[in-house]
Amino acid sequence: MNILLTVLTDLRSGRWNEAHNLVQQDHSLMGAWLHGIVHIQEGDLEDAEYWYGNAQRNFRERGTLQQEMEKFEAELKAQAE
Length: 81
Hints:
Blueprint: H1 2-12, H2 16-23, H3 29-42, H4 45-54, H5 65-80
Helix pairs in contact: 1-2, 1-3, 2-3, 3-4, 3-5
């Protein structure tokens, strides 16, 4: 899960390319969700919706980019406990 925290840090720092390259290395449901979030930040909503589907999440019920990052981080931390 450490790789996903690095991706999240890259996203928050505006390092989209780094985040995108790194998230592609994680094939978990959480990785797919974060991959979708990366594409939201990029503005590519079609790819974002595809990755949300891979993560078994409803793309149309998502929050803002900031809300999605916060929800993702909270769920990632909860899974680590």
